[in-house]
Amino acid sequence: MQVKKNPSADLNRNSGLYFVIGLTLVLFLTWRALEYKSYPKQDKIVEMMNVVEDLKEDVPITEQIKTPPPPPPPSAPEIIEIVEDAAEIEETVIESTESSQEQIIEEVVEVDDVEVGEEEEEISVPFAIIENVPIFPGCESAKGNAERKACFQQKIQDHIIKEFRYPQIAAEMGIQGRVFVQFAINSKGLIDGIRTRGPDPGLEKEAARIVASLPKMTPGMQRGRAVTVPYSIPVNFKLASQ
Predict the structure, then answer these.
(1) pLDDT digit string (tens) for 22-43?
(2) What transmembrane ranges does the database entry give (predicted)?
(3) At what angle do helices 144-163 and 201-212 cross, to 10 degrees?
(4) Which helix or strand (DSSP H or E) is residue 181 part of?
(5) Model confidence pLDDT, tens digit, residues 45-100
(6) Distance between alpha carbon 73 and the CA centroid of its chain, in Å?
(7) Cα dihedral sign for 18, 19, 20, 22?
(8) DSSP 3-state assignment of 221?
């Protein structure tokens, strides 16, 4: 015979509900315990400032200095009697030192022989518009200004290639770039006024050295007169790719 239990007396009937309620209560208490914060108590220090009434200081009585009265004004001068001078006074006649128009003045002016030389003014004419461009050594046989310009530019390029030396420090540091060089060929055919602008002082120095080593040229002519001709050229410094 099987024993049957009363459903109302079954203890496991609401066990799931009790488990959920207990778990919720435990989690709530754990959360509150973790969130609980305590702060150290600080003793309150109350500072009191005693305000004292202004002290009444006794001002010492100083002695009053009596200044003497000002001196009396000077008395009026006595009446002066004017006495007539009976003696005659001779007037001194001052002669004028100015010369009249009738008087002839002779001036002797000594002039030393001085030779005055005319200073020649340095005239600058751009390379593009000059009548006769400077002649680079080796371009004397070129005819016409156009051929001389082409020969001049070619000789400049050949000179740069011949004298080109890459600075060792710049090569080790991998420095490269373009240096713009400006210079002038003066009225005597010499290189003058070299100016450089580039990415590195070492490259600028080398470009200036190359241009300074240019040979003496026949100066440019403008209207039959030797003039200064400015010129500019770029110098490329480029390392060979490995």
Answers:
(1) 899 999 999 888 888 776 665 5
(2) 16-34
(3) 130
(4) strand 177-185
(5) 444 444 444 445 555 555 566 677 777 777 666 665 555 555 555 555 555 555 55
(6) 70
(7) positive
(8) strand
What is the Cα–Cα distance from 211 to 215, expressed in whole angstroms? 9
The pLDDT tens digits for 125-152 are 898 888 999 999 999 888 888 899 999 9
DSSP 14: T
What is the rounded end-to-end Cα distance, in angstroms, of the chain? 104
Residue written as tokens 């003793």? Answer: 43
Which residues face 220 on adjacent strands? 227
Structure tokens of 12? 């496991």
Residue count (the chain): 242
Instruction: Return d(Cα 76, Cα 18) in angstroms, integer.
Output: 134
Question: Could you identify the residue written with the tokens 């450089």?
Answer: 196
d(CA 195, CA 187) in angstroms, rounded, equals: 18
